Amino acid sequence: MKRRAFLALCGGITLTGACAGPDRPAASPSLPPKSSLLYAETPGGLSVIDSATGLPLAAAMLADTNWNRLYTLTGRSLITLDGKGGELTRTPVPGGAAVRTVSPSGLRVVLADPAPADPYGAGGRTTTRLVVADPTGARPARTYKLDGNYQPDAFSTADSHLFLVDYLPAGHPEGYRVRVLDLATGAVGPVLTRLKQAVPEGAEEIMRGDGRLGVPSPEGDRLYTLYTHQPNHLHTRDLVAGRSTGVHAFVHVLSLTEHWAYCLDLPDPFGHGPAESHAVAVSPSGLYVFDTANGQVLRAQTPDLEAVSTAAIPKSEGPAHAAATDDAIYLAAGTNVLTLDPHTLAVRHTTPIPGTPRGLTVDRDGTFWLGLSGAAVHLAPSDGAELARVSIPGLVALRHARLML
Q1: Cα dist from 75 to 18, 26, 90, 151, 230, whole Å
Q2: Backbone phi, then psi, for 144, in 5-degree steps?
Q3: What global pTM score does this model have?
Q4: Which is nearest to 121 in space by CA: 49, 170, 158?
Q5: How far is it, in rounded angstroms, from Cα 113 to Cα 130?
Q6: Is 236 in contact with 243 (CB distance < 8 Å)?
Q7: Cβ pair 357, 368 in contact under 8 A
Q8: CB-based contacts of 388, cutoff 8 Å, min separation 6
Q9: β pairing state of 175-182 and 36-42
Q10: Which residues of the chain have pLDDT under 50?
Q11: Distance between CA atoms of 238 and 223, rounded to whole angstroms?
C-alpha cells in the first residue's frame, strides 16, 4: 500500500513507555519506536532531524513537493541538499534573500524576498525582482524585474512558466489575482479558463481572504488553494456572465500542465468560521475540505470535481490539520485525530491527542506524527499511546515525516 504523508526540528528525544505519566497512555508493546526523518517549520526556517537521536541534521529554506531535496542560500550560493541533509550541489546565483518556490523537476527555483507577514495595506511595492536559477548550474540564472507587486506561487510542470500572486493595488494592496509569467519572454498575463480560453479583459477575479492554504495534487499536476472569508466574492465565470452572486469560501484549482484556473465553491457554512479551523487535503481520488468550527467536511471527486458530497463531523475549537493517504483521510483538531473513510466520509476511528495540534503527518506504518507546542510526538493510531517525543523549541508547524527503513 502506498501512503503519502505531510514535517519537525531540534532538541532531544524521549522514548515513552515505562516513564509515561498517569494522563498519558504507555507505548504499545506491539508498536516499538521507529526512526523517522522529521521536517519542521520553525522561526529559523525548515529543519530536518533524525527522530532516533533527536539531533538536527540540516537547516534549509524550502523542500520540494516530494521531500527528496532541500534548498537554501549561503551568501550568493544556492545549495541543494538531499532529504537527509547531505549537500548535493552548490551553485552561484545573482543574489536573492530566500528560496521561495521549486519546480516539479527540481531544475528551477525562484529566489526572492521573503513573503510579508501581512500582504495587505501600506507595505506594498510597485516593482518586484525575481531570480530563477537552475540548482545544478547547467543553465545560467535569469533575473526578472516586473512592474507590480508579485509573489511566486508555483511552476508549471514543463518548467516553462511561473504562476504568480499579483497584489492590487501594488502600492497599497487590498486583494490579489493569479497571473502567469512566461519564463522565455518575461511577459506576465492571465491564466486560462477551465475551457482553456483566454479570460476577457476586466474579468479576472480579485480575491482576498483570511485563509489561503495550498496543497499540490499527488500527481503534481494541480495546486489546490483554499480561500476563506471571501465576502460576496465573484468568480471570473460570474463576472463574464454578469451575475451578482457570491460565496464565502472556495478552492482555487490551478492546472500546472494546461495553465487554467477554476474555482470550486464551498456551501455555507464554509468560510464563516475562523480561518484556522479550516483544513484541506488531497488524495488520488478526492479533494477534502474541513470546517471544524461548524463540524463539516466536503469531498469533491478528482479530477473532474463534479461529484461533491458533505458530511457532519464533531465540532471543535482551534486549529485544524489534515492529511490524506490512498485509503484514509486524517484530521487533527481539538483533542483528537479522526480517521475518515475517503469515500463515505464516515469516521472510522478517533484517536486522543495530548495537546493542540500544529501539523499532522502519517507514516507508512499507519502511525501518526503530530506537531504540538514545543514538540513532535509519535502516536499509535489505536489508542493514542505516545511512542516517542522530540523536543522542538519554537515549533511553528510539523510538515512531513519519512519512516527510515
Answers
A1: 47, 47, 11, 22, 40
A2: -115, 125
A3: 0.84
A4: 170
A5: 8
A6: no
A7: no
A8: 13, 14, 15, 16, 33, 51, 377, 378
A9: unpaired
A10: 1-32, 233-244
A11: 22
Q: Coil, strand, or helix at residue 276?
A: helix
d(CA 352, CA 187): 52
Phi, psi of 338 (to 5 degrees): -95, 135
Number of other residues whose CB lies within 10 A of the CB of residue 95? 12
| Euclidean distance between CA atoms 236 and 253, whole angstroms | 13
Look at the block and give the residue holding cell 477551465.
194
3-state secondary structure 219-269: CCCEEEEEEEEEEEECCHHHHHHCCCCCEEEEEEEEECCCCEEEEEECCCC
Q: Contact, 396 vs 43, CB < 8 A? A: yes
In degrees rounded to 5, what are phi and psi of residue 5? -125, -175
How many other C-beta atoms are found inside a 10 Å radius of the C-beta of residue 105? 12
Per-residue pLDDT, 199:
73
The one-letter code for the residue type at 90 is R
Q: What CA–CA distance (Å, rounded) separates 6 from 206?
A: 30
Contacts 24+ apart (CB under 8 A), 298-306: 298/266, 298/267, 298/270, 299/342, 299/343, 299/345, 300/251, 300/264, 302/217, 303/222, 305/253, 305/262, 305/264
* Calpha distance 49→8 (Å, rounded): 7
- pLDDT attached to residue 198: 76
**pLDDT for residue 142:** 96
> Whole-angstrom Cα distance, residue 335 to residue 19?
22
Q: Which residues, at least 6 apart from 404, have a Cβ–Cβ distance to it below 8 Å?
A: 34, 35, 36, 37, 50, 52
Distance CA 121, CA 123 (A): 6
C-alpha distances out from residue 29 to 40, 250, 334, 386, 404, Å: 28, 44, 27, 11, 20
Q: What letter represents residue 18's amino acid?
A: A
Cα separation, 322 vs 330, in Å, equals 5
